[in-house]
Design brief:
The structure is a homodimer. The first copy, chain A, has 13 helices and twelve strands. With about 350 residues, the first copy, chain A, is of the alpha/beta class. The N terminus and C terminus of chain A are likely disordered. Chain B binds a DNA duplex (16 and 16 nucleotides) through helix 2 and helix 4.
Chain lengths: ~350, ~350
DNA sequence: TTGAAAGCGCTACCAC
DNA sequence: GTGGTAGCGCTTTCAA
């Protein structure tokens, strides 16, 4: 026995081998390639493994095979439901293939993302997945030098580091706003907590749609540098309503904000959608069953995670060959529900200003 | 050079040693215990490390030292906000100490939890944290045999595997129900999706409170084997209202269900709390700003994660010594808000049955 | 189909 | 303070 670990409790491959009356290599094979071992032996080995509660030592197999079977993942937030779906997809796809997913979060801070990337890279993952596109220069360099597949997800990048799977948040923000405009709304506000480029881009999309439609935006933006939350949605909504008496619709940059805004409207006695239309973003679970149900922009997060994992697995299995398309737009979809309504259906409570603006179209 | 890795690109400890003109052991020490090496040598070694872009091979050091600096964590769900707070605390406490947190989820399935535990143990974590107490016998065995600190969290166990930090969900369910009873309610329903012992225990607490108060429970339980969700909360609430015309209050076994129930009440035109009082569980972020704001049972999840990490770090640093108390009750707290109200304040719309029951007290 | 031997890159132990 | 040596537990190679 070893000099160092006199009281080792954990059983090794050789312990299993001894108990099953075979050699260690055979046990190793029985675990990794069961089809290469006689059913009879396999059975004996399985029994021994079970009896000894044997768990392979990954450190040893990593060292021997120089395969870590680790996937590094950095998300912006662990608390946000958006990333939960994405992570679930990654787990669903990677675990059955024998890969481990190591997740770190950046809390929406680029510096923390850089640290997380460096930390993860130190574990020598076989691929890195980051849920953003705006890495620091050093983080980009680290990822590029690593030589492993790198996937930037959630949004579309102009110059991807390697692979990029996401959607255009600018286009989605634009579409959400266009949707409100086509419903006949003119006084359209936006509330958001722009902590990352995704939020910035959604707001940029809103602004483009408003500009193109020749609509005035002054006083219609409710922003905060605090993290998005339901509470914040309520606060920003209240601010907007107070500043802008003739508000007709609001693009909420995510569903948490939308939920808060909806509650605040209830509280203030503002009926949705009769007086104000509300559209959210991400289409989280509660959007569909809120009262009124929340119109929202569906972002296919599980799908994005699935696609990401599929591409990574393909590259790893294909010994590094990259797929033809390095940039994949996964799209989005507006889910129309009760919280938005055509303006002409609602009771005509028009201010002079509303009337004037309506004539612009 | 090795026969197997002819094209090795990563430099090793011995490469650095050669370049710095020292032995490999000295390089190893210079990295781990810089104070044990002469400044002069240290400088030369640092230079060599930098020039070779040397990154230690964790697999090798794990194997050699049997120190992985890994913490294995199994939560019931990655999507549930409850575990997000808990995980955040773990990351907050462990990362600065140089530990990595590996998280897997069980989706509330004991079999998947067992798999997750086995998988995690294969990484040789220095501690395991599981967010439940009802492990399968095999999982318990694996954990016990592992010889590392094991913390079962979220709920209190009768016979903990090792350390246990949590709260009594039975007591919390009892307290929530007592709270409603003391508010003067008699026809109190419960909705829940009992997928784990926590939910079972909350319902058991409800039942004990009802029994003790001599209240009838027939037709007042809305259960489902589907996973908890906002949608499900709405469905169960509707079922309850349809079955029980004189419903006065509902204990929702978690806030997602409570949110769904609240929306459903809005939808059905049932005013909360005027006609029905609603109490949730967990006190998630949105509870405080819902309309009406949701009374809920606060479970200190971040605190629980913090305490867990502190104890684990203490044990690891103290070379395995366990703290005096192996079972820590972290408690809970009822957050009184607008969704619950005294029965005698509401307009007297009493059925014969209500009147009769009121006299029981 | 199975097994023996030789490392993977690092650290613990002990000598100097 | 520094270095030699012997593994850590597994997989790869090659022979049987």
């Amino acid at each position: 026995m070893s000099k160092r670990h006199e009281h080792r409790s954990r059983s090794r491959l050789s312990d299993v081998a001894e108990r099953a009356g075979v050699s260690a290599v055979t046990v190793s094979r029985a675990i990794r390639h069961p089809e290469m071992v006689t059913p009879k032996l396999r059975k004996r080995i399985d029994k021994a493994i079970h009896e000894l509660a044997y768990v392979p030592n990954r450190a040893a197999s990593m060292l021997a095979s120089s395969r870590t079977r680790l996937i590094g993942v950095v998300v912006s937030s662990l608390t946000n439901g958006v990333f939960a779906d994405f992570l679930r997809a990654l787990h669903d796809l990677f675990l059955p293939e024998g890969f481990h997913v190591m997740v770190l979060d950046s809390r929406y801070v680029p510096g923390e993302e850089e640290t997380a990337i460096a930390t993860l890279l130190g574990q020598h993952p076989e691929a890195m997945i980051v849920s953003s596109i705006d890495q620091t220069p050093r983080a980009r360099q680290l990822l590029k030098r690593s030589g492993i597949p790198v996937v930037q997800t959630m949004e579309l990048a102009k110059s991807p580091i390697d692979i990029n799977i996401g959607l255009s948040h600018e286009a989605a923000g634009y579409a959400a706003t266009r949707y409100l405009i086509e419903l006949g709304h003119r006084r359209i506000g936006v509330i958001g907590a722009p902590r990352d480029s995704r939020l910035h881009n959604r707001i940029a999309g809103y602004e483009r749609a408003m500009r193109e439609a020749g609509l005035d935006m002054t006083g219609l933006a409710g922003r905060s540098s605090n993290p998005s939350s339901v509470v914040l949605g309520g606060e920003l909504m209240r601010g907007l309503v107070e500043r802008c008496a003739d508000l007709e619709a609001v693009f909420c940059c995510n569903d948490d904000l939308a939920l808060g805004a909806l509650f605040e409207c209830h509280r203030l006695g503002i009926s949705v959608p009769e007086r104000i239309s509300l559209i959210g973003f991400n289409d989280l679970e509660y959007a569909a069953c809120a009262y009124p149900s929340l119109t929202s922009v569906l972002t296919p997060r599980y799908e994005m995670g699935r696609k990401t994992a599929e591409i990574v697995l393909e590259i790893i299995r294909g010994s590094g060959k990259r797929p033809p398309r390095r940039r994949i737009d996964i799209g989005f979809k507006i889910m129309e529900r009760e919280s938005t309504r055509r303006r002409d259906i609602r009771p005509p409570v028009r201010t002079a200003r509303n009337a004037r603006q309506s004539e612009q179209v």
